[in-house]
Amino acid sequence: MNQLDIQIASTAEELPSSLQFQQWVDLALADQARCFEITLRLVDEAESAQLNQQYRNKHGATNILSFPFEVPEGFDLNLLGDLVICAPVIAKEALVQHKPFFHHWAHIVIHGVLHLRGYDHITDDEAREMEDKEISLLQTLNILNPYQE
Length: 149
Prior knowledge:
Blueprint: E1 3-9, H1 18-28, E2 37-43, H2 45-56, E3 64-68, E4 79-86, H3 87-96, H4 101-116, H5 124-139
Helix pairs in contact: 1-4, 3-4, 4-5
């Protein structure tokens, strides 16, 4: 089983359980031959905005930030990286996008883990590959395609 360190630095009252987070992380890593360690930090808008400005030079809070860990050459570590998720942004997005609350959380966590694995959505081809992977994983949880209108 993958090791998940959950840090709750958010005042949000409704959050997924540690078991839900574990299920989503394990699903996004199910095709890997080894287990990984991930830190999942749940924050409010102020911390998200500060990190978004510091690391991406973008203003305001964002739903998720991914910080992949680059293992130094010669070391065999299972650290995959850190995910910082802004709980209030996730709640607002779920409401605005008319998505079930925990379905949106599942999508964002899986999306973040895929970023830690090296997936990206900079080019159209990369975006298509990443979205197809997300859709496939979410279907195993009976969650509809999050990219459909």
